[in-house]
Amino acid sequence: MKRIAVIGAGNFGKNHVSNFHKLGALKVVAEPNEELRAKLSAEYPDVKFIPDYAPLLESDEVDAVSIVTPVFTHHTIGMEFLKAGKDVFIEKPMTLDSGEALQLVEMAEAEGRILMVGHLLIYQPAIAKIRELIAEGAIGDVFTYHQERKKLGKARSVESALWSLGVHDVAVLHHLIGEAPTEVVASGHCGLQSAIADDVYLHATFPSGVKANIHNSWLWPERRFQLTIAGSKGFLVYDEGKHTVTLHKKSIDPETLENSDDGEEIVFEGSAQPLEIELSHFLDCLETREAPKSDGRSALEVVRILEQAGL
C-alpha cells in the first residue's frame, strides 16, 4: 500500500483525511491551523500531523500527496511535489489558468509521475450508468445536455460560481461526450461582488453537433442538482439529490412532428461514496502506474473550457 500525505485538512480536506485513513494509506497530514491539527490528531492518533508540507518534499516517508488547498496554490504545491518525485492528486479545479495546468501535466509526464485531479462526479456510479445507456442507444442520437447546479451556497472571493460549482458539470460533459467543444459562450451576473459572477449560464457546441447548457449559481433559493440529456428517442434525467437516473420514453417524430409518450422508468437508483471510490482509484493507479480516469490531460481540457467562458 502506497503512503499518502494530505496537504490541507480544512472543509473538504478533512474528507480526504478520513477516506485515506479508512483505506489504510494515510501517513501524514500537513495543516497550518494549530487548533484543527490538534482536533484531528486526537481523532487519528496513528497519523503524523505537521504545520508545513515543506519537510515532505525531501522525505521518503510518503509516496504521494493529496493537495486540498485553495485553488490558487495548486500549481505551486503540485509542481514542488512532482519535481520531488512524488505522485500527486489535486482537488478540482486543477488550476485557474490553462498555462499552469499544462505545466503540471508536462512536469508529471517528464517525471513519470501519476497526476490525478478530483473530478468527483465522474466517479459516481450513476454517471457510469448514463454513459452505458448512451452507448447502448437508449435515447437514440444525443441532441443536448442540460446541467443545473445551483443553491444558496458558499460565495467565493477568487473564483466565480462557474469555476466553483460548474467545474463538476464541465468535467462530466467532457467525460460523457468525449471531445472538446468548438465554441463556448457564457454570461454571468455579479451581484455580491463587482467582478465575481454569482450566477452563470454556459453554452457549448461540440464537433459532433451536440450542444450543452449549464446553469450554476450559489445565489439561488433552492438546491437543484440535475442533469437532463435529450435524444432522438427519449431523455435521461439524473437527480443527484434523489440518486436516481430516469429514462423518459418520450419523443417527437421528425417527419410528422407527432408526440409519443411511453412513460418513464427509473433505470438506476442508489447512492454511493464517490470520494472513497475516487481515492481508491488513485491508490490503484499508484500501484499499476496506469493513467487515472481523471488524469492531468483530461483535467487540462476542463480548465480550458472554463477559461474559454471568460468568467
How would you characterize the overall build of this protein?
The protein is built from nine helices and 14 strands. The protein is an alpha/beta fold and 311 residues long. The protein has two domains: 116 residues, Rossmann fold (3-Layer(aba) Sandwich); 147 residues, 2-Layer Sandwich (Dihydrodipicolinate Reductase, domain 2). The strands form two sheets. An eight-stranded mixed sheet has the order 8-9-10-7-11-12-13-14, with helices on one face. It is globular and about 70 Å long. The model has no long low-confidence stretch (mean pLDDT 97).
Overall geometric form? globular
What class, by secondary structure content?
Answer: alpha/beta
Give the spatial strand order of the biggest sheet: 8-9-10-7-11-12-13-14
CATH homology group of the largest domain:
Dihydrodipicolinate Reductase, domain 2
Order of helices and strands: EHEHEHEHEHEHEHEEEEEEEHH
In the CATH scheme, the class of the largest domain would be Alpha Beta
Low-confidence regions:
none
Arithmetic mean of pLDDT: 97
Tell me the Rg in angstroms.
Answer: 21 Å
Question: What is the total number of structural domains?
Answer: 2
The number of helical runs is 9
Number of strands: 14
Instruction: Profile the largest sheet.
Output: 8 strands, mixed
CATH topology of the largest domain: Dihydrodipicolinate Reductase, domain 2
Terminal CA distance: 41 Å
How much of the sequence is in beta strands? Answer: 25-35%
Highlighted features:
311 residues; alpha/beta; Rossmann fold; 9 helices; globular
